[in-house]
Amino acid sequence: MENVKKENDRFLLECERWWIFALMICAAGFYGGYTYSVRGGVFCNAQTANLVFFGMAVGNADVEKALYYLIPMASYLAGTIISELLPKKFNRHFPLRWDTAFVLFEMLVILIIGFIPETAPVQICHIMINFICSMQYNTFRSAENIPAATTFCTAHTRSLGVYLVKWMKHRDEKNFLKRSLFHGGMIACFVVGAFLATVCCRFFGIRAIWFAEIFLLVTFADLLYADLTKEKNMRNRVPDGH
Hints:
Elements: E1 6-7, E2 10-11, H1 18-38, H2 48-59, H3 63-93, H4 98-115, H5 122-139, E3 142-143, E4 146-147, H6 154-169, H7 174-204, H8 213-228
Antiparallel strand pairs: 1-2, 3-4
């Protein structure tokens, strides 16, 4: 336990490191660029737009369209529920932590999406990405004691503004600058993911999603190594924010 980094009087798990969050949000940015470029021109990382469309459909008495928007919303909700129920039971019975196993599961889903033909309904791909984004968002909640999202940037943008102002008022408070840099870095990583997806889609079409596996593979390897070495006896430790 002594070789686990201590931050603000709390031992940090590998799944709470800032670089893990950076890799995961790069992957999420890639998903957004991918679905918009070659899978129907929509974003599947969050549900705000679907909730708005659902409300509009109800307001227009369009029952069929309202029911349609319930499908991705239900997929997102299911991902949240499953990722909330499984971790403790999983950590008790398996040699890997839930965080590590989830990244492996996400890699499998992304692999399958790349095989779904263009002729298939785009909703299949949307629902699958809704599901894994929900699970990812609920699994990775806090990076080095900083609440953080890994699938969208709304909260990061707000927090960047808040901590920049606080730092400008209190230049001696290094923590404000640290948080500003963290949230700005998360936004930059998300944009990089979207940029790479756009370029890859131009050359590889629907198979471009497989390039997101690079971010996930590096994340999985790092978490797996931690599970088998320095965190071998820490499977039951709950990450910050849970």
